[in-house]
Amino acid sequence: MSPYVRFTIITASFIGLILIYTIRSAALNDPTSLFFNPQKGYALRYSTIRHQQAEAFISSYNSTLMPKAVKAGQRTNKLCIGIPSIGRRGAQYMRETVGSLLEGLTPDERSEIYLMVFIPHADPAVHSAYSEEWLHTITDHVLTYDFEDHEKMQHIRDMEDEGGQFEEKGLYDYSYLLSKCMEQHTPYIAIFEDDTLAMDGWYHRTVAAIRDAEHQSRVRKAKNFLYLRLFYTEEYLGWNSEDWKTYLYHSMCVAAVLGAILFLLRVSKPAITLSRTVGTIRAIVATYSLLAVFILVFFALGRLTVLPSPNGVHEMSRFGCCSQAFVFPRQKAIELVDYFEKSRIGFVDVLIEKFADERRELRFALTPSVVQHVGKKSSKLDIDGSIYKEKIWSFGFEAYDWKRLRSEHEDTVKMKTGSD
């Protein structure tokens, strides 16, 4: 083996080992990586702290210290939040969902929010939290079905019966909640599922993200965007098979660049470059073999590790999952309700994406997610009545540092106060 070949192999191997060792630790939390470690990736880090903060807030809530939304006519609310919550067997997360949305808010921030919890049952008493005082005290409104029309109430009961159409009931509930939020005339409406956890400072980040999404919409000459996604799972943002041609093209480009470099070396310095000997051929084969290894390692490390999404607001028209937390402009919410009423049956997240595809709507996501899905596994029912098995988890959410978030929130409030 020639000295050149030996030097190339040793140098490339040394550099490769250092890179793999350095990046592999980050890839352990990357669900798109072959090195992904579920025990580390699904570990409760920031969620544990935020849960404690939310629970402490609910337990010690004092309405004199944290006002509700200011009534219409006194101040314009910026955001109506709707939380649909069905009574379930087993674990209930709605308490910490509400607590995490409110904990840490300043009085001014709280006064800009109209918080509505929806109990979508013909008999709301079947929900364990409905009879608890904190729910009615801490929210602006506890919404229930109060139709005087007997046929409408009977339709609600029919959908609730065992074997009823979950796809119809879920869509019906979502539409009803959106409609009630629209009555508050807030420019934006946010719908959070009742098994989510919001980070400290979620509100000021969301307000800033809305402004950014509005700006990007104007740049694209669109009237407005369809939604701002506050939660998504990174699991579906890996190396997607439908893009294999793109990956192959870029890999070939890298190989072509390397070939061009070798060719230029031979042309520019023929005196010190090996001629067409067995040693030269071996050197080229060794170089390209190492390049192939590097390309494979690049893909094995995972897309989120080597090509992470930038922080902030960015367009996400594909692979966004799921419906845990959306912010809709009011006008788009009106259009969605009309679309849902015409569809009548279907899963909310699927129909929203279908609506967006048909009308080429702009869809944005906020990175990192400001919301976590507490239950990990979806609590929705499949067509056959079974629980969805896939895990719905924001890996970026768990990387938050609660002290930095609190400091960021305080600094933001100071800047806003100083500018007012």
TrEMBL record:
Keyword Disulfide bond among record annotations? no
Lineage runs: Eukaryota, Fungi, Dikarya, Ascomycota, Pezizomycotina
Tell me one GO molecular function of this protein. Answer: glycosyltransferase activity
Q: What is this protein called?
A: Integral membrane protein
- One GO-annotated biological process of the protein: GPI anchor biosynthetic process
Task: Alphabetically list the UniProt keywords.
Answer: Membrane, Transmembrane, Transmembrane helix
Provide one Gene Ontology cellular component: Golgi membrane
Residues crossing the lipid bilayer are: 247-267, 279-301
InterPro entries attached to this UniProt entry: PGAP4
Entry superkingdom: Eukaryota
